[in-house]
Amino acid sequence: MNKAHYRQQVVNFLEKAHIRLTEEEKARIEIASFGLPDYPRSGLQLLTYCNSERYCAKELVLFPHQVCPEHRHPPFGSSMGKQETFRCRWGEVYLFVDDDSLTLNKNESGEPICPKPEGDEQWYQCDRFILLKPGEQYTIKPNTLHWFKAGSMGAVVSEFSSESRDEFDIFTDPRVRRLEGVE
């Protein structure tokens, strides 16, 4: 499958969330593989509406069970790093954050509620999560480790944040190359 196929899938997911795009926006959908060999298991599809020194707005689309690798948004220049709010629009997303107030990822028998990507568990340190359903949101503080995984239907998440500088993101997995995508 190629970039055009994945872009059309993204448009279909956004339509399920009642989000309509212009043709120009459809052409700007980013298909991020993070340079990892297992896309679409690991990856993210996104559309940036606006990104300035003051604020940023994006739509994030995750295919069923797709994982965005663990990372943080460190300080840069005079910024303390990106603060972002994720608001679930459609589907469900497990948002793992370095936040002791969240739910530990274990059920009564000690098994994970939401498994980490098999074979890559070492690159996922955050063990506490919040399950976001449509209409629910969570704000991630700057320079805070986090990763997220879609539920069985996939997910559409709106991101509202301070300035986004993806090139400065620090990933737990050293193989990740944030700005690499699918051709």
From TrEMBL:
Record-linked SUPFAM superfamilies: RmlC-like cupins
Alphabetic keyword roster: Carbohydrate metabolism, Isomerase, Manganese, Metal-binding
Cofactor(s) the protein needs: Mn(2+)
Recorded GO MF terms: D-lyxose ketol-isomerase activity; metal ion binding
EC number of the protein: 5.3.1.15
Keyword match Isomerase: yes
Coiled coil regions, renumbered to chain: none
Pfam family, one: Lyx_isomer
Record's catalysed reaction(s): D-lyxose = D-xylulose
Keyword set includes Isomerase: yes
Top-level taxon of the source organism: Bacteria
Family statement: Belongs to the D-lyxose ketol-isomerase family.
Record protein name field: D-lyxose ketol-isomerase
Origin species: Providencia stuartii ATCC 25827
